[in-house]
């Protein structure tokens, strides 16, 4: 069952959903709205937002999440994308600038760092005992959520 959509009068993405500020709309459903990013990392960079104000992913009801990914697939298909990133940032130090959940669809037309998402990936070898302890702790907590 759909939850009652929240909106904030100060939130730029809530204003876009309500048509109070303009956007380059792509597609819309009962639960989601998508549009072109005005500061694109590459041509075709799009955003999908829930029609419900939640700042971060874990605050958003599941039905909005379920609605968003099929739209990401459509936006990728409409552009014939083979290389692209789906990105969703939570929190300032994780690069979230707009505090209303949004999914980026970012075409990666070439390997150049000049277009599309450029990712830092500071991977390190894991300690197997630490992985085991973490797996047990998280699996236990997840089974109760
Ligand atoms: P994030 O850093 O994940 O919070 O991304 C916010 C994104 O929203 C950036 O890519 C901005 O270019 C984009 N953005 C901000 N305001 C608008 C707007 N009015 N219309 C379209 N995109 C916007
Ligand atoms: Zn909002």
UniProtKB/TrEMBL annotation:
Domain HIT: 12-117
UniProt motif Histidine triad motif: location: 100-104
Transmembrane domains' residue ranges: none
One example GO MF annotation: catalytic activity
Location of the active site: 102
InterPro entries: HINT, Histidine_triad_CS, Histidine_triad_HIT, HIT-like, HIT-like_sf
GO biological process: nucleotide metabolic process
PANTHER family reported for this sequence: ADENOSINE 5'-MONOPHOSPHORAMIDASE HNT1 (PTHR46648:SF1), HIT FAMILY PROTEIN 1 (PTHR46648)
Name of the protein: HIT domain-containing protein
């Amino acid at each position: 069952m759909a939850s009652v959509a929240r909106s904030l009068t100060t939130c730029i993405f809530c204003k876009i959903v309500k048509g109070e500020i303009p956007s380059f709309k792509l597609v819309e459903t009962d639960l989601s709205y998508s549009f072109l990013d005005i500061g694109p990392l590459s041509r075709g960079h799009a955003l999908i937002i829930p029609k419900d104000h939640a700042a971060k992913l874990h605050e958003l009801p599941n039905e909005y999440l379920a609605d968003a990914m099929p739209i990401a697939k459509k936006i990728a298909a409409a552009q014939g994308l083979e290389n692209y990133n789906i990105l969703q940032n939570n929190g300032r130090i994780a690069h979230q600038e707009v505090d209303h959940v949004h999914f980026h669809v970012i075409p990666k037309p070439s390997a150049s760092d000049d277009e599309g998402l450029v990712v830092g990936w500071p991977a390190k070898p894991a300690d197997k005992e630490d992985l085991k302890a973490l797996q047990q702790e998280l699996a236990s907590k997840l089974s109760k959520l």
